Amino acid sequence: MAVPASFNDIAADAAVRDYFGDVWYQRMVWVPRGWEGQRIVLHFESATHRATVWVNEIEVMSHEGGYTPFEADITDHVQAGEQIRITAVINNILHWQSIPPGVIEDTPAGKRQRYWHDFFNYAGIHRNVWLYATNSAHFTDVTVTTDLDGSDGAITYATEAENADARETKVILRDADGNQVAEGSGGTGTLNVPNVHKWAPGHGYLYDLEMQLLDGDTVVDSYHQSVGVRTVKIDGSQFLINNEPFYFTGFGKHEDTPVIGKGYNDAYLLHDFELLKWIGANSFRTSHYPYAEDVIDYADRQGIVVIDETAAVGLNMGLGGGIFGSQGYQTFSPNTVNDATREVHAQAIRELIARDKNHPSIVLWSIANEPESDTEGAEKYFQPLFDIARKADPSRPVGFVNVMLAPYGKCRVSQFGDVLMLNRYYGWYVQTGDLEAAELAWEEELSGWASEGKPIIITEYGADTYPGLHSIVEGNPWTEEYQIEYLEMNHRVFDQIDAVVGEQMWNFSDFTTTSGIMRVGGNKKGAFTRDRQPKAAAHYLRSRWRKDL
Ligand code: GCB
After folding, report:
1. Are 231 and 241 in contact (CB under 8 A)?
2. Reduced to 3 DSSP states, what percent helix, strand and coil does the chain have, rounded to the nearest 5?
3. Cβ proximity of 333 and 377 under 8 Å
4. CA–CA dist 514, 199 (Å, integer)
5. Would residue 370 show up in a list of annotated catalytic residues for this protein?
6. Which of 293, 309, 351, 370 is catalytic?
7. Which of 192, 246, 338, 345 to pair with 3, CA 20 to 30 A apart?
8. Of 457, 498, 499, nearest to 284 (Cα)?
9. 423 CB under 6 A from ligand 1?
10. Backbone phi, psi, residue 496, to 5°
11. DSSP string covering 225-262
12. Tell me: the pLDDT tens digits for 125-162?
């Protein structure tokens, strides 16, 4: 099986595509001869949704959650210069205690995997797997925060190291041209940078912070951390980056491409960012899970602003009932999403923040997408999770994405967020085709939210659009014309309300979902098709967002 890739679409076989259970990966690898005496680590950037890993016959680690990294020190189990066998069993079942949740149902035709999120449950080893070596005395972590005082910048760092007794830590800050601009000693400290070159939206300027672990004059470990100096603050209903009001333009995205599913791919990464630039998007949300680390690294370098989301999607059994009525499950209950699920969710938040805390592009944590949020159960479930996120990162705002089923006045979770993130489909799922009625209803609800005095980001608004389908008359859902009319209506509403500080259209591109009567070959709300060709709406968005044209 190819790595990195989802296994689902590689075989032309429905049994492989829809398979749920254990999937075994195995390969032989040489441990480089030059690694004699080094600490050797096996690192998975992700395995969806959980994995257990062996080196030869020895079990070395297990991990729950499909989108964050895990690693093991395998020094004691391998020899430099030897070939080793790495075996991983990946399991892709979604259940009540996984994030995202799901359930295996018994049907007359056999067992079926069911879940409540609107994207295909791609699985496998989606990202790179590394074997790497360090000195036994080595850095294990660094946390960097930045601040501005007029034209001066401050970089505060805290390093952590292992087996490093009696070792000195030295840090060197270099600008993007490689010139040293500051230095410090000790594992923690603050570096002042007069006349700092700021990181800003559209301007991904990065310093390089090198940390050295010293044994006398010998550098025994060295780590380079990119640093963008910027601030993020909420002031009333404004979202400030570097003390200036910021307006988000862009999309909710997916990791979703033909053949490789959710597999990471350099070429698609670059191409998608070129399209973001082409269309004038300054931001995106990692809907609905943490993306590959390369994506966030690249966003740092490109000055693209990111809302970073956990994989907590589909915690809402009220969605998708439609004319078939209720789903037969209660979202929050001892037998469904419960305290044990919340522990897994809390761990997902901690792991996301641990991985991504040093990225300047990330300005906001989203701890869940469209959970049930209008009940007491939801309020109790979520309150501690906000506390956990704030404790893990006091430097960034925290929010969650609110669903249309918990409108203004009904939501009991928004009170905990620093920012309001709203997904709304007036003119699509409701008032379908009647944009006049949709506009009135949307304006009324949004004015309500605006009275809360917090910044509002519209994290989803969109209309399914079949590329090539046209209509001469207005109000014809699924056509390319209607997608534009729908977006124009939304923009009229946003432009009237000062508290709206961003618009992220749903979705960047068409993507794969489970099959169903609401989906035609997947979700078609993309501005681009799945193979990244523009629909007419892409040109319309470009004319709205590109101020330089
Ligand atoms: C939503 C969800 C997103 C769906 C979208 C839709 O609210 O957050 O995952 O794909 O609606 O198109 O229905």
Report:
1. yes
2. 20, 35, 45
3. yes
4. 40
5. yes
6. 370
7. 345
8. 457
9. yes
10. -85, -15
11. EEE----EEEETTEEEETTEE--EEEEE----BTTTBT
12. 999 999 999 999 999 999 999 999 999 999 999 999 99
